[in-house]
Amino acid sequence: MHSFSSTISIRRETSKSNQKWSPSPEGSTLVNVEATILFQSVRAGFVVAICDHQGRIHATNRGYFERVQIPEVAQDMALHQGLILANNTGIRKIMIVSNCLSLINKVKGLCFDRLLVGAIVHDIGKCVTKFVSCTFIHVSRACNEATHVLSKSA
């Protein structure tokens, strides 16, 4: 199992972490997703990067969602885009990586949301059934820094 270590903080922005990015184990593919609210344009930018166990990028996607101003909704929609891209590239064993802990907990079934996020998580659950293996992993922003910067330019 691919594992990460991190420190716990109430606010993610102020957390200090020694966590570093690492590739997925051999035989599995890392799907790194990130979304950023772009307040000046009333959009949310997103990026998906798919890497193999050697850290080589196999596919990427970036874009934006119109009129999305809720960070968690943007992250959920980015994760959904990551699953679509992974499925379209024929990958069957994936590890989804996000720095949005509440999203990771929801897709793992650790909590439930009846609002818009819940509907997106439900769609994510349907997409997951297309894969042989799908693991969801929370990482610190430091491990997602490249996708975070790219999502701002979407």
Descriptive overview:
- With 154 residues, the protein is of the alpha/beta class.
- It has one domain (25-152): Nucleotidyltransferase, domain 5, CATH 3.30.420.
- Helix content is 30%, strand content 27%.
- It is built from 4 helices and 5 strands.
- The chain has helices spanning 71-88, 101-107, 116-128, 145-152, and strands at 29-38, 43-51, 57-66, 93-98, 133-138.
- Strands 3-2-1-4-5 form a 5-stranded mixed β-sheet, with helices on both faces.
- A hairpin with a 4-residue loop joins β1 (29-38) and β2.
- Residues 1-17 have low confidence and may be disordered.
Describe what is shown at a glance.
The protein has 154 residues and is of the alpha/beta class. It has four helices and five strands; from the N terminus they run E-E-E-H-E-H-H-E-H.
